[in-house]
């Protein structure tokens, strides 16, 4: 612990962080605590993923990005690193660069449907299920049903208490509308060319590392790639989990990478 705290000695840089799909600041408390050893962390929960941030009337990628942009303005920071986890990266990529932004932290970033590792049959099945639920306006009914929660508990690798947080905190319509975005987004992502730390993981069963790394290398002039051993949706999310899988030396490299 002393080594990690020492690595963040002096004035810490500000890190604004946006959550991944079906996560929030409650579920990611351990990651936030890990990052707070190195940065002043400002976490932004996307609307509909936590009760304290009600869902958007019109759920879209553009409106998610606009929500985050407004929250950033409220912080009134002189400088910051803008970070996004998985789908959160796509959200922050839609925010124009300004003079305060030192660069981007892309953590296991989702780019488009092609960046998913899902097998074609599973991807098609998920798409059909999501389309069915939304077509018949069943999202809230399905989300609030005991059967859905029990199935999720059985199917998920998560402990039951984390599944309960997901269902208790998140909005069903937001979950299914965002899932449709993720599964059906075929657009080529125009990644903004700003200094970027790209976190990848050999243990990521969700994101195609080669596909994502190739796009970032093509688009980003100043790129730092950090290889980790974190799962995309780990069954443990305590601080120690991240300490064991992201090295102190890599975090120091990240801090030094962003020059003010």
The largest pleated sheet is described as: 6 strands, parallel
Global mean pLDDT = 94
In the CATH hierarchy, what is the class?
A: Alpha Beta
Q: Based on the coordinates given, report the CATH architecture.
A: 3-Layer(aba) Sandwich
**CATH H level: which superfamily?**
Alpha/Beta hydrolase fold, catalytic domain
The sequence of SSEs as H and E is HEHEHEHEHHHHHEHEHH
Span of the ends, CA to CA: 27 Å
CATH topology: Rossmann fold
Number of strands: 6
Going by helix content, strand content and strand pairing, the class is alpha/beta
Strand order of the largest sheet: 2-1-3-4-5-6
Measured as a percent range, the helix fraction is 40-55%
State the domain count. 1
General form: globular
- Give the number of helices: 12
Unreliable residue stretches:
1-9
Report the portion of residues in β strands: 5-15%
Rg from C-alpha positions? 18 Å
Could you characterize what this model shows?
The protein contains twelve helices and six strands. The protein is an alpha/beta fold and 260 residues long. The chain has a single domain, classed as 3-Layer(aba) Sandwich (Rossmann fold). It has a six-stranded parallel β-sheet with strand order 2-1-3-4-5-6, with helices on both faces. Strand 5, helix 10 (209-219) and strand 6 form a beta-alpha-beta unit. Helix 3 packs across helix 4 and helix 5 (120-135) packs across helix 9 (172-184).
Could you give a short description of this structure?
This protein is of the alpha/beta class.
What are the key terms here?
260 residues, alpha/beta, Rossmann fold, 6-stranded parallel sheet, 12 helices, disordered N terminus
């Amino acid at each position: 612990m002393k080594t990690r705290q020492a690595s963040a000695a002096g004035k810490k840089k500000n890190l604004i962080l946006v959550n991944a799909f079906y996560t929030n600041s409650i579920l990611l408390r351990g990651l936030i605590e890990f990052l707070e050893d190195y940065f002043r962390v400002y976490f932004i929960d996307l609307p509909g993923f936590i009760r304290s941030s009600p869902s958007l009337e019109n759920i879209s990628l553009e409106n998610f990005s606009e929500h985050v942009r407004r929250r950033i303005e409220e912080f009134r920071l002189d400088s910051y690193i803008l970070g996004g986890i998985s789908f959160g990266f796509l959200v922050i990529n839609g925010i124009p660069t300004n003079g305060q932004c030192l660069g981007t932290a892309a953590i296991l970033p989702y780019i488009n449907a092609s960046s998913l590792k899902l097998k074609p049959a599973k991807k098609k099945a998920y798409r059909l299920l999501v389309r069915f639920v939304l077509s018949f306006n069943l999202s809230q009914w399905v989300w609030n049903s005991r059967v859905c929660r029990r199935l999720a508990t059985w199917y998920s690798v998560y402990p039951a208490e984390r599944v309960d947080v997901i269902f208790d905190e998140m909005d069903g319509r937001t979950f299914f509308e965002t899932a449709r975005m993720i599964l059906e987004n075929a657009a080529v992502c125009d990644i903004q060319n700003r200094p970027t730390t790209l976190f990848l993981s050999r243990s990521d069963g969700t994101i195609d590392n080669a596909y994502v790394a190739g796009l970032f290398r093509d688009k980003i002039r100043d790129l730092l790639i950090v290889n980790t051993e974190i799962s995309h949706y780990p069954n443990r999310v305590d601080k120690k989990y991240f300490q064991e899988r992201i090295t102190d030396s890599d975090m120091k490299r990240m801090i030094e990478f962003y020059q003010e």
